[in-house]
Specification:
442 residues; mainly alpha; 17 helices; globular
Length: 442
């Protein structure tokens, strides 16, 4: 018997505990990748850094660090998911990546601006923590069809993202107080900023324990050599399964392209604001708080829209907004314009992430036994997209000496996603939220 067959579904306590993992790890996504670390990294390092004797702009290096992180996890995730499926050690790997990411965050406390080589500690810790963050999500997402029935997917997915936004904002506000009033706490400004990295790691590891206690217990079956390559074989098996399903295949292709745009915008928005518009750290934190609150509302709003108009219609609408964001970003010159832009990003950020996850869950075969492998394929698609998106952003930045051209180029990814969705036939399961919708006939 599979976990998804024997574990009781729709248990409120379990669903809330699962969603609480977003509360735990979203503080990393907000503080480290968006609000504080990119600004601190760009402010405390030289404009040109030398790596292996090659000069590279610090903003491009930051983009390439994200690229390397996601390239690493996209290679490792299939192997790990294969082991997780064979041995039922889903929780083990979720814990492993959480501890790895959290401890790397804590280690980033030692990244100081007054030591020439310490930027390598900072960027190294960032890469390791990013791998931990991305790796944990692979196994976190794979629990969705195990603990809930399909009619709960959209709402539960949105609930998780919303909890993540609220929790991360609470921590960010606390950190903003410490940074702004650092002298009252007897801290130097730089120490206060570095302390935020440490506190994110503690928050991440600490609150994740709530999720770990509630998730199904691992069966810890034996691991053999075949299980190491099983994940890669399963990815191929998943591909063979979906390549004849026009709806599933079309959605994943569209997801690949628009994820390259969405994730790159989220990762590099702060760096863009600091580099192109001279935003200060406090200004960016305030913007990010507004953005997160709007994202939580957006996640629930588009879950509601999908109830009446279907998932694909909702995603299409959001992709139109994302395309407009890239075009708008190229021309902005005033700070107030960036506030408008950030508000637009916030409204569609939560919706596009939560609906993408729930849409894929609906498109998965209901009787599949390898849940982790299907979600590994989904996550691998997203991570390869991030690799391409962030590398493209960094390459254009390095080539042209500015980020505006990089942002404009991201519109191509959203337009490609829109076109693929438009020409892809979908069944009722993602066109309507009706409980009696039938399975896609592809």
């Amino acid at each position: 018997m599979e976990e998804k067959d024997v574990f009781p579904k729709n248990v409120k306590k379990v669903l809330n505990a699962w969603a609480f993992f977003d509360w735990a790890n979203s503080s990393y996504a907000l503080v480290i990748t968006v609000a504080i670390f990119p600004v601190y990294f760009l402010a405390t390092t030289d404009d040109i850094l030398y790596l292996f004797g090659y000069g590279i702009s610090n903003s491009a290096l930051y983009a390439f660090a994200i690229t390397l992180s996601y390239l690493t996890i996209s290679i490792l995730a299939p192997m790990l998911s294969g082991i997780a499926d064979v041995s039922s050690r889903r929780k083990f790997f979720m814990k492993l990546f959480t501890w790895m990411g959290g401890l790397a965050c804590i280690g980033m406390f030692f990244f100081t601006g007054d030591v020439d080589w310490s930027w390598k500690v900072g960027i190294g810790g960032f890469i390791i923590s990013m791998v931990g963050f991305a790796g944990g999500i692979v196994f976190y997402n794979s629990y969705l069809p195990i603990i809930a029935t399909e009619d709960k997917f959209d709402r539960l997915s949105a609930h998780g993202f919303a909890l993540g936004y609220y929790g991360s904002v609470i921590l960010l506000v606390f950190l903003l107080v410490i940074i702004t009033f650092h002298e009252s706490f007897g801290l130097e400004y730089e120490v206060a900023v570095r302390l935020s990295f440490l506190l994110v790691g503690v928050w991440w590891i600490g609150f994740a324990q709530i999720t770990f206690r509630a998730m199904p217990r691992d069966l810890n079956l034996p691991v053999n050599r075949s299980s190491i390559v099983k994940g890669y074989k399963e990815l191929y098996k998943v591909w063979k399964s979906i390549r004849h399903k026009k709806g599933t295949r079309g959605f994943l292709m569209a997801f690949f392209f628009y994820s390259a745009g969405v994730q790159t915008v989220l990762f590099l928005a702060s760096a863009f604001a600091e580099s192109e518009l001279n935003f200060g750290e406090t200004e960016l934190i305030i913007i990010v708080i507004i953005l997160q609150l709007l994202a939580a509302a957006g996640a629930y709003f588009f879950a509601r829209v999908s109830f009446y108009r279907g998932n694909i219609w909702s995603i299409t609408l959001m992709l139109m907004v994302w395309t407009s964001i890239c075009l708008f970003a190229y021309f902005i010159v005033e700070k107030y314009q960036f506030y408008i832009l950030a508000s637009m990003v916030g409204l569609v950020m939560g919706g596009i992430q939560s609906l993408s996850r729930s849409t894929y869950s609906k498109l998965m075969p209901k009787d599949t036994k390898d849940v982790s492998s299907y979600f590994s394929f989904y996550e691998s698609t997203e991570k390869i997209a991030i690799v391409i998106g962030t590398f493209s952003f960094g390459f254009i930045d390095q080539l042209t000496g500015g980020m505006r051209n990089s942002v404009l180029a991201l519109a191509i990814f959203f337009i490609a996603g829109l076109l693929i969705l438009y020409f892809t036939p979908f069944g009722k399961r993602v066109q309507t939220q009706s409980p009696d919708s039938t399975e896609d006939q592809e």
